[in-house]
Design brief:
It is a single chain. By secondary structure, the chain is an alpha/beta fold. It has one domain: TIM Barrel (Alpha-Beta Barrel). Helices cover 42% and strands 12% of the residues. It contains 15 helices and 12 strands. The chain has an 8-stranded parallel beta sheet with strand order 4-11-10-9-8-7-6-5. Helix 1 packs antiparallel against helix 14 and helix 11 packs across helix 12. The longest helix is centred in the C-terminal third of the chain and has 33 residues. One of its GO terms (molecular function) is FMN binding. Pfam families: FMN_dh. InterPro entries: Aldolase_TIM, Alpha-hydoxy_acid_DH_FMN, FMN-dep_DH, FMN_HAD, FMN_hydac_DH_AS.
């Protein structure tokens, strides 16, 4: 009797293969949300409710899904989201994911908590951005900014929705700690040492985050950063349109409408439901991205039809990485490319600009 080989035709196929290779604790670290995981579930449900009204008889050529994101050309209207500790999934970690992104011609966002130093990731080539968590010591924070600049990162993506880490019950119950060989390579070892030790909170990651990150960021911090770097700034973790408008007013190149993949405030709205209002709140000079729950090329088209300039792809890239290293991560991007092209063709869209003119509803 032979066992059927799982085809990798969808993002979910990569998830199934990845889950077969990972420990239960690492699976939960990747998949879990905060508290009751209401927002985690809402992200997917909200995307499923979005309907797209296709146009017909457009007579266009094969779709062109390329886009300009934060001033640079991308082969697809997406960037690989910043995700921590990718060596938990594969020995090469972020280096494999970055190479896959470079080969696909899309931006790769380096996490502050990358398990490969930002300087080493430059060797992967391609368009790289740097995601900044504001540390307790402003000098350490600016050191991160300067290291990102020196490494050739072209955009700073500042995450603003983690004053403290959300209460991620799966990690707490698993008493999750990082193995000794996986560390936050961009951050001084003393600040992050708690990530390797058992914690009273149950999760060592909660302990180290709450110790290392600044708990009381204000708009003044972003204004100061704007005056201290020439890199474009994208503000990640916004849901309220008023906050999107404020970010644009202080000079942000873009905002990411995000609930952190359902991993921060449980009960926050699904990201995609807040997208149209955010798009309406900012000027054309400020691009709007969205993340949380996007799992297919159709989801990307849904986001574009609701006004997004692009999306961030998170967990699917980790599933690809776990399933096959660089080849697996590249496979996820190839699936999304094929699905998006097919969806654009069926919707009568020649390019991303046409996709953004489609009629869509959120079904809410």
């Amino acid at each position: 009797m032979t066992t059927a080989v799982l085809r990798l035709d969808t993002v979910d196929d990569f998830r199934l293969r990845a889950e077969a290779t990972l420990t239960a604790a690492v699976r939960d670290f990747v998949a879990g949300g905060s508290d009751s995981e209401t927002t985690l579930a809402a992200n997917r449900a909200a995307l499923d409710r979005v309907t797209i009204v296709p146009r017909v008889l457009t007579g266009g050529p094969d779709p062109e899904p390329g886009a300009t994101l934060a001033g640079a050309r991308s082969a697809l209207p997406l960037a690989v989201a910043p995700m921590a500790y990718q060596r938990l999934l594969h020995p090469e970690g972020e280096l494999a994911t970055a190479r896959a992104a470079a080969a696909a011609g899309v931006p790769f966002v380096v996490s502050t908590l990358s398990s490969v130093p930002v300087g080493e990731l430059a060797a992967a080539g391609g368009e790289q951005w740097f995601q900044l968590y504001w540390l307790n010591d402003d000098r350490d924070t600016m050191n991160l900014v300067h290291r990102a600049e020196d490494a050739g990162c072209r955009v700073l993506m500042v995450t603003v929705d983690v004053p403290v880490m959300g209460r991620r019950l799966r990690d707490i119950r698993n008493e999750f700690v990082l193995p000794a060989e996986v560390r936050a390579a961009n951050v001084a070892s003393g600040a992050m040492s708690a990530a390797h030790d058992r914690a009273d909170a149950g999760s060592a990651l909660i302990a180290h985050t709450n110790r290392a990150f600044h708990p009381a960021l204000t708009w003044a911090h972003l204004e100061a950063l704007r005056s201290r770097t020439t890199l474009p700034i994208v503000v990640k973790g916004i849901l309220d349109p008023a906050d999107a408008r404020r970010a644009a007013e202080i000079g942000a190149t873009g905002v990411v409408i995000s609930n952190h993949g359902g991993r921060q405030l449980d009960g926050a709205p699904a990201s995609v439901t807040m997208l149209p209002a955010a798009v309406a709140a900012v000027p054309d000079t400020c691009q709007v991205f969205v993340d949380s729950g996007i799992r297919s090329g159709t989801d990307i088209l849904r986001a574009l039809a609701l006004g997004a300039h692009g999306v961030l792809i998170g967990r699917p890239m980790l599933w690809g990485l776990a399933a096959g290293g660089e080849t697996g991560a590249a496979g996820v991007l190839a699936v999304l490319d094929a699905e998006l092209r097919a969806a654009m063709r069926l919707a009568g869209c020649a390019d991303v600009a046409a996709a953004r003119r489609l009629t869509a509803t959120t079904g809410c």
